[in-house]
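CATEGORY: protein folding

GOAL: derive structure tokens
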Amino acid sequence: MNRTTYVLVRELTDIPDEVRAAPAPVIPEFAAPFSLRPVDIEGSDPETITEWMHRPHLLETWEQDWDIERRYADCTAQLAGTFSRPCILGYDFTALGLPELGPREVAYVELYRPAKDEIARLYEADPRDMGFHIATADTNLLGRGVMSRWMRQLAERILATEPECLRVMCEPDYRNTPMRKALEKTGWHHLGDFDIRPDRRISLYAFPRDAADLPVIR
């Protein structure tokens, strides 16, 4: 695969100058037991993410059973631009009373600018809006409420880190019931289900800074 010509499928190119000028997404800092860092493409991260995405529960929700070459190219393209940032989430299981599991890396996270993304066709996106995708690889965390609380914390940390951000967006596949429940029980607003592409139907969610910042659907 030619890494220099790799195209991020979701990124819009025909965008206003003010949207194009928006900086890369912020990567907020977290206190223990969580940590969040950008992907290191020269280390083992591309291999780790590739293995994660071939786990059965992520094959079903992400459908990214890519080889390591494509994963490397995808992360490289993200890091080279200002549309999105690929990240690795860490968690210390001692906080759950499971010290034997210790601190480990548990999920792949993408932070992105919705105004530069295909979901900008659905609502009036501000250039500084932020969005995220998450693939929780470690099944020890599933069903414990840890990740649902973290998704709210992520939104709060983004809003605290970037004062110009009006809202944080999330758009899981409409069939991803666990993700939808996790968002809805932690204060995210469901804006509706939409066909974003012929092969992709999503549920659109927002976490606004204030009630007045709740997005307007086009």
Summary: The beta strands are 34-38, 84-92, 103-112, 130-136, 167-170, 189-197, 200-208.
